[in-house]
Design goal:
The complex is a heterodimer of chains A (231) and B (530). Chain A is mostly helical. Chain A is built from 11 helices and 4 strands. Chain A has a two-stranded antiparallel sheet. In chain A, helix 1 packs antiparallel against helix 2, helix 2 packs across helix 4 and helix 8 packs across helix 11. By secondary structure, chain B is mainly α. Helices cover 70% and strands 1% of the residues of chain B. Chain B is rod-shaped. Classes of the chains: A mainly alpha (231), B mainly alpha (530). At the A-B interface, helix 1, helix 6, helix 8 and helix 10 of A face helix 1, helix 10, helix 13 and helix 14 of B.
């Protein structure tokens, strides 16, 4: 079955077994915000240390320089490698860095993508990085291209608390997987839809499933309950 | 609005992802979006720059202030392109004035600084709502969605600044240092419209316009996809799409099912069904060669061709053409496939395997090679040991038997003996018989030592010498020795002279012995000659 639409934010990754893994590369907006958060954290840490180190004179200045170096170059690398591709900012926005083939990021890739920030910053303030991200189909900045990495959205666990309180009812025709999912989806989003829209959607199936218009909603919910099975 | 025609995958998304979709969408239609924006903005800024040539700051401010109006052009294009009705450049520019008219004043005044500007615009422009309905509609739409829209504007604001600074930085980097060595870096001069530096202000206006040409369509597209995502969520657009597809499928399937049923009805009374009842093997009528199922839409040849075409296509057959560079001279002479594939030694092996018991032969060769290798290795490994001990063995001299120089007080030097022992003994016999007999006995001992290598030591007695001689298996010599020894002992220790006849016999016997000895020694070369 062909998909009716062509453009999607998912990037299919075919495994040797012929399974499509769907990665969701993240665009410049959440990434810029994540960077902003990381920048604030780094700034605050540097500020706190500066207040302490200012009392140590030239030794303090030396220590401050070392600390500045470590924070600027190793903060993202260490977080990404040791914390499943996340820095605190990325974690807050639900992002993580992975290799382009979906595997967890390692030392070399993380070092390359973070050292090449200097290139992305050219000519000033991440101009090259932004242009690269906007023109790349997977939102890779230059460092990502060099290290062959992606910034993707983390998968979130699906939490479904909707309860269908209608007696199960077998669908009158055999439904394929996508259609079953659509009916389940209808039941799960039933509460969020307006009354008119609920009826309108249910009536779409009246003719083909041979259900009376007045009972359309109830019967659809019953089918969803049947499809979901006992809970 | 036909959801079926949507050019993006419609599903509820995380708002950030929805904004990403806007970027993808803007990239897909980048040519039209950037082109139309470039025409619009350059025309408008050109007009402003000419009218307000002396006040470039004011021109820039007006240009910046009117941004919400420019947004309407990309939105027009994007909203049409979503449902596969992408306008041409001409069409979009022609329709623009009409779009600009709606609520332009509000857009430029109290809604100018709304952070969710891009998200609200579709409600204004596409749904055409105004006043209270618009407000209520926006409340519903932005119930849980205002944050990403504001973040979009915030990021957009910074991005404009980033691109602007970046472009200026780039321009500055390209300047040789001599140019700006004498520049006065006071900022006040730049804001002063009265100064001569109008060109710099105009330049910055145009650079800003360039930034807007790139960013504004993306910003608008992101706002539009956020709006789209919210409506998808609220109105379950994806569910509607699935339901429509389900209905379509069932409607398509219904007549087909009817037809199949009608076709099967007469078949149920045909002989084949009886065959099935008799449990005949299915191979009798499965996969017939003749074309069949001709009275339905999907006939068997059509199915076959479509199956073949699918099998010839991508996931089932993965053909690749690889090109590589080769020099003409290096091309090998055209050989037969076999010749090219196998080297000569492999062929030889295969041939020998075919005929004789080649495998055994090869195994034998291999085993011998193994043995030789092992031997070589052993020699090499024990080379020091060998060097040490084999060398010594060569140097070892045969233990030279100490030839006694005297026996029982008799000198045993062959030089001290005369050449003719028997003659000398006979000559000495009358004057000194003791000397004569000792001469004979010494002659015998020297003879035994030199000619027969009898291991005689200086500790041996006369009788022991006889015993040793007995082992030599020389009966004639032994008998003679017995006589000589007996008479010598009698004379030396007993002082009893033998008779004259005895000494003559002994001398005769000695001569016979010598002659036999000489004959034996001369016979050897003669035999060799023969």
């Amino acid at each position: 079955m062909t998909l009716p639409a062509v453009l999607d934010t998912r990037y299919p990754l075919e495994t040797p077994e012929g399974i499509d893994l769907l990665l969701q590369p993240a665009g410049p907006i959440p990434r810029a915000l994540a960077y902003l958060i990381d920048l604030c954290i780094r700034g605050l840490v540097m500020l706190a240390f500066s207040i302490v180190l200012i009392f140590f004179g030239r030794l303090g200045m030396g220590l401050w320089s070392i600390l500045f170096f470590l924070l600027s170059w190793w903060y993202p690398v260490l977080f990404e490698v040791l914390w499943q591709g996340r820095t605190p900012g990325k974690h807050y926005l639900g992002l993580r860095v992975v290799h382009a083939d979906g595997t967890p990021i390692g030392w070399s890739a993380s070092l390359i993508r973070n050292l090449l920030r200097t290139v992305d910053m050219l000519p000033l303030v991440y101009c090259a990085g932004f242009i690269s991200m906007l023109s790349n189909a997977r939102f890779q900045r230059l460092g990502d291209l060099a290290a062959n990495t992606l910034v993707t959205y983390q998968e979130r666990a699906l939490i479904n608390t909707t309860h269908i309180s209608v007696a199960p009812q077998q669908p009158p025709v055999a439904l394929d997987l996508e259609e079953q999912l659509a009916i389940l989806d209808y039941a799960e989003r039933h509460q969020q839809l307006s009354e008119e829209r609920r009826q309108e959607l249910a009536e779409l199936l009246c003719n083909s499933l041979q259900i009376p218009r007045a009972q359309a909603q109830t019967q659809l919910l019953g089918m969803a309950s049947y499809l979901r099975g006992p809970q | 609005m036909q959801l079926n025609n949507a050019q993006v995958v419609i599903r509820p998304r995380n708002p950030w992802e929805a904004a990403d979709l806007g970027i993808h969408f803007a990239r897909q239609h980048a040519g039209l979006l950037l082109g139309s924006m470039a025409i619009l903005l350059s025309a408008w800024l050109g007009l402003l720059s000419i009218v307000l040539y002396d006040y470039p700051g004011i021109a820039g401010l007006i240009f910046w202030w009117c941004k919400p109006l420019y947004d309407r052009l990309p939105l027009l294009i994007v909203s049409r392109a979503l449902f596969n009705a992408k306008p041409t450049l001409k069409q979009s520019l022609r329709e623009l004035p009409q779009q600009l008219k709606a609520q332009w004043f509000a857009s430029l005044t109290w809604r100018r600084f709304s952070p969710s500007r891009s998200f609200d615009l579709p409600v204004t422009q596409l749904e055409g709502l105004n006043g209270l309905p618009r407000k209520q509609r926006l409340q519903v739409l932005s119930l849980r969605n205002s944050q990403p829209a504001s973040a979009l504007t915030l990021v957009g604001f910074h991005l404009e600044a980033v691109l602007l600074i970046g472009l200026f930085g780039l321009l500055f980097m390209l300047l040789p240092p001599e140019v700006y060595a004498n520049w006065d870096w006071r900022f006040g001069d730049w804001l002063d419209d009265e100064s001569e530096a109008h060109w710099l202000d105009h330049l910055s206006n145009w650079v800003y316009a360039l930034v807007l040409v790139v960013w504004e369509p993306i910003y608008v597209a992101c706002g539009f996809t956020l709006y789209l995502n919210r409506r998808t969520e609220l109105e379950a657009w994806d569910t509607e799409l699935s339901f429509r597809r389900l209905t379509e499928r069932l409607q398509r399937a219904a007549p087909l099912a009817l037809m199949v049923f009608a076709l099967l009805l007469p078949l149920s009374y045909s002989p084949s069904s009886q065959a099935a009842a008799l449990c005949l093997p299915p191979s009798l009528n499965s996969t017939p060669k003749a074309e069949r199922l001709l009275s339905q839409t999907l006939t068997s040849p059509a199915a076959q061709t479509s199956i073949q075409s699918i099998l010839a296509d991508k996931p089932f057959s993965n053909k690749r053409i690889e090109h590589e560079l080769k020099w003409g001279e290096d091309q090998p002479k055209p050989k037969s496939k076999e010749e090219r594939g196998t080297p000569w030694w492999l062929k030889y092996l295969i041939e020998s395997w075919k005929h004789t018991s080649g495998i055994a032969y090869v195994a034998e060769v291999v085993l011998w090679l193994l043995v030789l290798t092992l031997l070589g290795w052993l020699l090499w490994h024990y080379r020091r040991w060998l060097g040490e001990f084999v060398g010594r063995l060569q140097n070892i001299q045969r233990p030279q038997r100490q030839r006694p120089s005297t026996l029982f007080g008799l000198e045993l030097d062959s030089q001290s003996l005369p050449a003719d022992i028997a003659g000398s003994a006979l000559a000495l016999w009358n004057s000194d018989p003791r000397q004569a007999l000792s001469l004979l006995y010494r002659g015998l001992l020297v003879h035994l030592l030199d000619q027969h290598q009898v291991p005689i030591k200086s500790s041996h007695t006369e009788n022991e010498v006889l015993g040793l001689l007995d082992q030599q298996q020389l009966p004639a010599l032994y008998r003679y020795s017995q006589h000589v020894t007996q008479h010598w002992i009698n004379l030396a220790y007993g002082h009893r002279l033998p008779a004259d006849r005895v000494i003559q016999q002994l001398c005769q016997a000695w001569r016979t012995l010598e002659a036999r000895q000489a004959g034996a020694s001369s016979a050897t070369p003669r035999e060799a000659h023969a």
